[in-house]
Amino acid sequence: MPDITIGQAGVYALLGYAVVFAGLIALMLVTILFGKLFTMKKEEKAPVLPAETAVPVPAVAPGTAGKLKLYNVDPKTAAMIMAIVADKMGKPINELRFLSIKEVAE
């Protein structure tokens, strides 16, 4: 096995680092290109409505719907239950009125 000098070892190390960084840069560029390619395809598929047929954004319901009584339920759990109910109903949570939430033991 031939002996190499410290200078040659340094050059080999720098070349190794350069190859690794070039590979990382190439991988980054491929990832960016594929990301742009897929987002362009999604944008092309999205239907474009003419200005006169655009759907108006509904107004947000104002304020609160009153007091909520909690029976053996902590506020975090009650908030989660209300969010799930609103999501399942497909309505904003401020358009629903919850009177009470009670834990039912089985």
Write the layout of secondary structure elements.
Blueprint: H1 6-45, E1 69-71, H2 75-89, E2 100-102
Parallel strand pairs: 1-2
Q: What descriptors fit this protein?
A:
106 residues; two-stranded parallel ribbon
Describe this structure in words.
With 106 residues, the protein is mainly alpha-helical. It has two helices and two strands; from the N terminus they run H-E-H-E. The chain has helices spanning 6-45, 75-89; strands at 69-71, 100-102. A two-stranded parallel ribbon has the order 1-2. Strand 1, helix 2 (75-89) and strand 2 (100-102) form a beta-alpha-beta unit. The radius of gyration is 30 Å and the shape is elongated.
Number of strands: 2
Mean pLDDT: 82
Share of helix, binned:
40-55%
Strand content: 5-15%
Assembly annotation: single chain
Distance between the termini: 78 Å
Radius of gyration, in Å, reads 30 Å
The H-and-E topology, N to C, reads as HEHE
Strand order in the sheet with the most strands:
1-2
Which sheet architecture does the biggest sheet show?
A: 2 strands, parallel
* Helix/strand structural class: mainly alpha
| Tally of helical segments | 2
- Principal-axis shape equals elongated
Stretches where pLDDT is under 50 for at least 5 consecutive residues are: none
Quick take:
It contains two helices and two strands, in the order H-E-H-E. It is mostly helical and 106 residues long.
